[in-house]
């Protein structure tokens, strides 16, 4: 008996729920089908580490012999969250997740301590892709008198900019109901450094997920990478959430240095008021953004983040220029 042709083999549509590099788990109705990707996608997109990402809608050709799938088509994405791939060719893209409603940036009061510069990089990446974003501050049970001023400043800084901020304690149970409400009937991604408690929070709001958790190193004060691949989880109260591997650094892509200030909602209103139309808001006289910082209208830490990101983007531009 001859093998079935590609046209005769049944095709179905589904959503990628897990990616391990060479294999993908695709949810089709109530079935999860282990699948591989057609080689042409890797050949045509050599500027990305992963042609298929968690959250992608795909078409599969089913192999009836072993009940695996072969991804023949990747549907158009409504959005994506991606970063510059670490350890790969300069500028190569790593797509973390596709087709989500909101990005939640996870930070912790300590062990590890929150990192505003990291938050700002992720907020810019979300803005570039028209993705709403918010902040979860976990481990509030560890907040003592020494941490309180910094945590309150962080909370107010982003709340004033219109980003929802959710203080939580996965260990103590505080704030979990607000997180459930925020995730209900949404497809959300929770991302941040290792050790902030992403997996613990998911286990707390959705008992039964049994997402693996890890400890924070006493020597480095950084978390261990317990989540090694992004994974989409269904929530019993409605919606889906993507748990991502911990990120130590977040390299931005698709942002030109001259456009960066437009992705800072607190800087954008001043861009057109500068003396020079090509102002970088770094060293030029007559800069409306620097004046806004001096007058207390822009938080100094946000401006410092802008300058650091600007420098990294300018350095990347220099590396890309031909000798």
The CATH architecture of the largest domain would be 3-Layer(aba) Sandwich
Strand content: 15-25%
- Total helices: the number is 7
C-alpha Rg, in Å? 22 Å
Strand order of the largest sheet: 10-9-8-11-13-12
**How many strand elements?**
13
Order of helices and strands: EEEHEEEEEHEHEHEHEEHH
CATH class placement of the largest domain = Alpha Beta
Poorly predicted ranges: 1-5, 216-227
Number of domains: 3
Roughly what is the average pLDDT, rounded to an integer? Answer: 87
| CATH topology label of the largest domain | Rossmann fold
Helix fraction, binned, reads 10-25%
The main pleated sheet reads as: 6 strands, mixed
Keywords:
single chain, OB fold (Dihydrolipoamide Acetyltransferase, E2P), Rossmann fold, 3 domains, six-stranded mixed sheet, five-stranded mixed beta barrel, 13 strands, 23% strand, globular, disordered N terminus
Task: Briefly characterize the structure.
The protein is α/β, with parallel strands linked by helices and 323 residues long. It contains seven helices and 13 strands. The N terminus is likely disordered.
Written overview of the protein:
Helix 2 (116-128) crosses helix 7. This protein folds into 3 domains: 11-74, OB fold (Dihydrolipoamide Acetyltransferase, E2P); 80-243, 3-Layer(aba) Sandwich (Rossmann fold), CATH 3.40.50.300; 257-320, Probable gtpase engc, domain 3 (Ribonucleotide Reductase Protein R1, domain 1). The protein is built from 7 helices and 13 strands. It has a 6-stranded mixed β-sheet with strand order 10-9-8-11-13-12, sandwiched between helices. It has a 5-stranded mixed β-barrel with strand order 1-2-3-5-4. Strands 6-7 form a two-stranded antiparallel ribbon. 23% of the residues lie in helices and 23% in strands. The chain has helices at residues 39-44, 116-128, 148-159, 176-183, 198-205, 288-294, 300-320, and strands spanning 11-19, 24-28, 31-37, 57-63, 68-74, 80-84, 93-98, 102-108, 133-138, 165-167, 187-191, 231-234, 240-243. It is an alpha/beta fold. Mean pLDDT is 87; it is low at 1-5 and 216-227.
